[in-house]
Amino acid sequence: QVQLVESGGGLVQAGGSLRLSCAASGRTFSSSAMGWFRQATGKEREFVTSISWDPSRTDYRYYADSVKGRFTISRDNAKNTVYLQMNSLKPEDTAVYYCLALGHWGQGTQVTVSS
Q1: How far is 97 from 85, CA to CA, in rounded Å?
Q2: Can you tell me the distance from the alpha carbon of 80 to that of 27, in angstroms, rounded to the nearest whole number?
């Protein structure tokens, strides 16, 4: 059974940082792309960032314009885990953050940025 478990969310002041993790189990994800999405209250789920199966291919990391330069995605295939380092957080980054891989979603982790 495939399972994605996000962690690392929380409450942070504007300008602060958080690091999210998404641990995958049930199968090996080392050959698949992985991504992060987010959904704010009352809004549709939106793309945040994605990463190729090969963590060394930085040219195959994509970011939404709204997070470019502030967020960094990375992965550790040995741990079947993808990370999202979020710096210079803004109140508009407040949302539930979801991990996606091979058509499977995690349960999400809440990120709240106070002004």
Answers
A1: 12
A2: 9
